[in-house]
Amino acid sequence: MNKKTVIIGATTNPSRYAYFAADRLTNAGHEIVPVGIKKGEVFGEQILDIRKSPKVDNVDTVTLYLGARHQPEYYDYLLSLNPKRIIFNPGTENPELVNLAKEKGIETEYACTLVMLGSGVY
């Protein structure tokens, strides 16, 4: 099943986990929407500028590759995407955002998108 996934912290740098996630998600047949501060294209999708709060509809999953200290200024934006779930990848754990998400009925997971894809539980 295709799960439209917004990648927060998307990058064109092939040594970053956000890049690996974009590759793996695309190969697994999921639609990706890369969002970040970097410019460029990832697997045929333009990286949208998070500072402009790009509108994205029908989001299944937000996968975070943005450290907790950089997240607060984007709380409203992340929650406005109204995803079914937010995956906090290692290094992005944030109890405050977890609580805000849960208040809106958004499922949260401290997990690794790459491991979830690899083990078939994405």
Automatic annotation (TrEMBL):
Residues 3-117 form the CoA-binding domain. Pfam families: CoA_binding_2 (PF13380). Coiled coil: none annotated. This is CoA-binding domain-containing protein. The lineage of its organism: Bacteria, Pseudomonadati, Bacteroidota, Cytophagia, Cytophagales.
